[in-house]
Amino acid sequence: MQVSIENLGKLGRKLTVRIPAEQYETQVKSRLAEVGRSVRLKGFRPGKIPAKVIEQRFGTQVRGEAISELIRNSFAEAVGKENLRPAMAPEIDTTGQPSDGQIEYTAKFDVLPEIGAVDVSQLAINRPVATVADADVDAMVETLRQQRREWSPIERAAQVGDMVLFEYSAQGSDASGAFRHPAEGVDRVGTILGSGAMASALEDALNAHAAGAQISTDLTFPADFRVAELAARQAHVEAKIIRVQESRLPEVDEAFIGAFGINEGGVEKFRTDVRANLERELKGMLSARLKTEVVRKLVDAHPGLDLPQSMVDREAQGLLQQAQEQAREQGQVAPGVEAFADMARRRVAAGVLVGELARQNDIRLDNRRVAETLASFASTYEEPERVVELYQRDPQLMGGLQNRVMEDQVADWIAEHAKVSEQTLSFSEAMRPA
């Protein structure tokens, strides 16, 4: 095998690889012979199919498979021999046909940058710490009661905490022209007064009115209002209250805790389980916060890092697709890919630096930690064993989990070798997205 290298910029590389055609032909003949022994064709006895028939039926497929395998194996050998570390899969160009006794192809790809020793000893890291208090358990029990409250129609006027079902229309005129929502008729929605689910000014207008009341008011809808065409616009609103309901919270009794699968141990066992769930969630959030802090400081410490543009472009496209899906769900328009350039660059820089730290310090994937992480994640589902089985059978899912665990391991390693100070948070503060 002959290999020549051409530099295409700082990180771009072009390999030209030439392989003896005899090696290719030998592989093709071997594959065709194997097909001839194993394939079943109508009108022929097994193992007695003429070579010409095998060539006619399977030659194109076999040659394609042979050239693909030859390129894959020779490329891996070539980059190993030349001490290259491709950032992504190469772009291959070849005719796939022998010429002058050789098979030739070119491979274009970016390589990972040569970073040198990554020193984390001077990074100032804030490690968040928090615990679950009795008050946090009380708050979660109350949340669970709120989730299972029952609603009953009432005749009195609505007040904060009541659910109000109403019909409304909004119209106005601004620099964009006249508008009306909906275009015809009315929109029927429900809201819990004081929840902020609707515009607060609209909830205030509904307050202190009973079913059947007609309401007229002028207001400005918030910029994040769920109806995009009304967001941040002033309008005149006509509304009619259809129904007012008040809630009744369940008692924390045997029936209530039985709904969570607890049939023995009573309230004490229920609170113990609630605390265990909160502690599991807190552990995950503290780990995520630490990783966010570590990665941010690590990336900030390497502002001039050269990165493979192909990786940055792929990351930006992935972020764009996520934004487009979210925008479609919300009836909005996503920004262009350029809006994600900085975030994509930081994500790629984080991945490159984390990978380099793992390589330089021989940080290997802890399979026990992978299993523990998977078990913890699966325990949040009704059938944990099925979730575990799903991951074990899906290489893509398991690969994502392994990458996440490796990132956690590197973050922990950095925290052990950097300048770390503890930041004490309450449970609610720790659970708030960083």
List the keywords.
alpha+beta, Alpha-Beta Plaits, Chitinase A, domain 3, 3 domains, 4-stranded antiparallel β-sheet, 12 helices
Topology:
Elements (H helix, E strand, L loop, with lengths): L1 E7 L3 E9 H18 L12 H31 L9 E4 L7 E9 L13 E6 L4 H14 L2 E4 L9 E12 L2 E5 L5 E6 L7 H7 L7 E7 L13 E15 L5 H5 L7 H35 L8 H21 L11 H20 L6 H12 L5 H10 L1 H23 L1 E6 L2 H5 L3
Helix pairs in contact: 1-2, 3-6, 6-8, 6-11, 7-8, 8-11, 9-10, 10-11
Structure in a nutshell:
With 434 residues, the protein is of the alpha+beta class. The protein has helices spanning 21-38, 51-81, 134-147, 200-206, 254-258, 266-300, 309-329, 341-360, 367-378, 384-393, 395-417, 427-431, and strands at residues 2-8, 12-20, 91-94, 102-110, 124-129, 150-153, 163-174, 177-181, 187-192, 214-220, 234-248, 419-424. It is built from twelve helices and twelve strands.
Count of helical stretches: 12
Mean pLDDT: 91
Morphology call: elongated
CATH architectural designation of the largest domain = Orthogonal Bundle
**How many domains, in number, for the residues?**
3
And the CATH topology of the largest domain?
Trigger factor, domain 2
Give the strand tally.
12
Q: If you compute it from the alpha carbons, what radius of gyration comes out, rounded to the nearest whole angstrom?
A: 32 Å
Give, in order, the helices and strands: EEHHEEEHEEEEHEEHHHHHHHEH
End-to-end Cα distance, whole Å, is 53 Å
- Please state the structural category: alpha+beta
CATH class of the largest domain: Mainly Alpha
Major sheet attributes: 6 strands, antiparallel
**Beta content:** 15-25%
User: How much helix is in the residues?
Assistant: 40-55%
